[in-house]
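re: ur question from earlier - yeah i can do the single chain one, its not a big deal. heres the input i used so u can compare w yours
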Amino acid sequence: MRARLAISLSGIKVELREVVLREKPRQMLELSPKGTVPVLVCHDDQVIDESFDIMIWALGNDFFKIDECELVKHCDENFKPWLDRYKYPNKYNDNTQEFVLENAMNFLELLEKKLEKNIFLFGSNRGFADIGIAPFIRQFAHVDIEWFLSLKYPKLINWYKEFVDWHVFKSIMEKNPKWADNQPIVFFP
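and the output i got, formated as tokens:
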């Protein structure tokens, strides 16, 4: 989601190839053997297969500050593993659900504190950190939305609600047909 958000905001047109991860196309695996999405192939055949790096590619270095970058990295390293364990408890049975939530909540508390002064993480405008983190908070919220909305993090919940109502987010969530060799080219955004 965050790579699509960054590309959409940049205005750069890319060819979109929607894949179903259960049916990874051979072409994708040849470009990026790790088999995860997103994968971006540039005109110079450079392959970028991390959403964080695609955000930087799309938005350029002028869009973010180092502290925003660091918070996104902190999310990736210290929240995303707990999010995965929360979303897929049968896949990751190495911790109790209580322990998983306790660790995930540390990051939610950090965001709540950052949002005490501003509507967005680093000011009055949506920035790199908001785009890089909000999709993961959305995933977390949607595991049990009623529980999430009942948490004692009013600033975080308002930030989340604003994000899911944002027209750019809604536009990137539109479904596209699964890519096939014989289908017409689909451009994004």
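The chain has ten helices and four strands. not sure if urs matches, ping me
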